[in-house]
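User: I'm putting together a teaching handout on how multi-component assemblies are represented. Below are the sequence lines for each component of a complex, exactly as they appear in our records. Could you produce the 3D structure of the whole assembly as structure tokens, so the students can see both representations side by side? Please keep the chain order the same as the input.
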Amino acid sequence: MKKTNTIRYLTSVLLLFLLTGCWSSHEIEELGLTFAMGIDKGEETELEKKFDKAGGDYPKKDRITMIYQYVNEQAAGSKSTGGSTDQKTYINVYETGDSLQQINAEVALRQDRPVFSPHLKVIVIAADLLRTYSLAELLDQPLRDNEIRPSSMVLVTRGRARDTLELKETGEMPAFRLLKIVENEYKAKKILPPVTLAKLTGKMRSGTSYLLQNVIGTDGEIKYAGAAAINGKTNKLIGYLDEHDLEGVMWIIGKGIGGMVKSYDPTEKKVTAFGVESIKSNIKPIVKGNRLSFEVNVKSEGYLAENWNTKEKAFDDKFLEKVEKTTAKTVKKSMEDITKKMKTEYKADLAGFGNELRIKHPRLWEKLKKNWDETFTDIPITFHVQIAIKEYGTVGDQ
Amino acid sequence: MLEKERGDFSMMVGQQDKITVSQTSIVITNFLLGTGILTLPRTSGEAVKAPDVWLSVAFGGLVAILAGFIMVKLSMEYPDKTLYQYSRDLIGKWPGGLFTLLLICYFLATSGFQVRSVTEVMGFYLLENTPIWATAMVFLWSGIYLLTGGINPLARLYEIIFPITVLIFLIVIFMSASIFDIDNLRPVLGKGIKPVLEGVKTTSFAYTGIEIILIIVPFMRKPEQALKATLMGISFPIVFYMITVIMVIGALAIEGVTSRTWPTIDLMRSFEIPGLIFERFESLLLVIWIMQMFSSFTISYFAAALGLSQLLKKRMEPILFSLLPVIYLIAMAPKNINQLFQMGDLIGNSAIYLVGLIPLMLLVISKVRRKKFEKN
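Assistant: Of course. Below is the structure of the complete assembly, with chains in the same order as your input.
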């Protein structure tokens, strides 16, 4: 028994050495907290060109330019002490090269705080790059890295990623604004459900085409503007959807509660606005023998939000019915517009028709999924819209 | 001979050192829940290739219950002996000895595998620059400290770990509901029942660990309740595994799951809940997972040491200490993560024969013998 005790004491003393902890700790002030990452077409900045001239060059191809958005710890620190500052709260670092990991390492040669990405929130990709490289290639490093969380949101920009990561105001992080706009879905319809790295992996590998939210940036302002269509097989860009197109898609998939529909009275040409409170969308695949078709039923309830037609009374049921009809027409048209575009322009299913077929007719889907986008272009789709106005706010008669 | 054998173990199998029914089922549960909980969504997703993985997991659980039933039946033939002891009585000294040796190797490999998995995951997600041996050492040394006390401290520690695991696991996994999408789990049986059945082989691997009942029955205060303990011990993992698979595939989709090395941790990393004290929950998952891995490791270590001590008829402690470096070497044997996964598959495959088919065989032999004996 005694011997055992000695051994136990010895073991516990030895264990003490392992309790020193924090071998690989870094002070938080020394971390280059990166909140956003941009991927642009390779184009060296003036600074980089000067660096190259002075001998700071290495063998590489200028394929992509990465933008790392750091916290400016000086500006962030002074804000808490109350001093006003003209400094921006962020620093953007640009670095060009052809490997994300190498570009990342190059930044460590320039900054005392190297890129630290466990707090990365947003990745913005210039859509032009997606004509040459696939998403799977561009995002391989972020998906593989143990620092970057799969909860990071992926956005695409029609312009340059660096423009979407600039803000005029000094007190705000562009990364956070990009992230927070998603939460405005209760107000705006044209916001796609957020696509994170985690969700994107499934989309990239499923083989069906999909949409990514498009953002644009100019003069230090940013805007969510439509979407970019990505081919499911190649993971490259198909084309852009403008805001009207995206609205159609949102109606088909039944998302974006809290949006509104503006329509013009057919006779008076006056504006009426319908505020959406609920949407139920049902995509029904119909198989008859060898023929496949889709029927989309959209039901939406809401309220009359605006009416410029002062002659009419909202107390009058007939007027409400008229608004319901014109609204339904507008919704139907926006869905038909985008469907036509999907069939002729993009030649791809971007609104999840294939997904419904997969769920309701899995065996048929197995046969069709290989060439789904081509098959989709010939499939007839009909739309039925029912709009119900439940109330009209505080004004019933102007 | 038999008296002497029992004398050697009087310290461990004494009345005080026996464990209750609920302790037994917790030992089984804790042994089952190991690496599987982090990799099962991927391995089973690859095997099934349809969203019906959760069905495969349930069927795998049924297979496990069946296997557990056979094992209990076998153990009840010799309720005061471990498999190591009665296998020699049943099939002769040499074949029995060989079987015991193989079993010991199996448990050693399992425990080495657990140590390596935990150090790999900790090295990747938690302690990036800490050398792998350092984390392995902490694990091994605290394991041996626990095991020198015999089975009772082991069971009591698991009794503490288990409720914490259940609570944190359920909280954390249901927090991922925000990214759950039911479409990822539909259609049910879209490709028919065939892929589901093909996946059962993989999913039943996740339940290896029930074989521990073959060894701990003589440690039970009431061995006659071994079946109850086993059923309880298996049903917890079935529920755990099903929840895990449903939540992970629901969030990441089957195509996404099959590409991730550690899908369950990635599920936790795929969402943040702002406003709570904690925004991120993967460390909570890792905490309970490491505790589970510690229990899996210590049980298999215990089983291996017990086997060797009963085979050589030596005291347990020196054997525990001499096995420590062996486990370390086994843990460090895989050169990379793929070899580690291959090692896991190898252990799973050998489990089919060692603790699946052979116990069934032994049960048949024992029944036949008993009948002969009764006739005579």
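A couple of points students might notice: The mean pLDDT of chain A is 87. Chain A touches chain B through 32 residues (CB under 8 Å).
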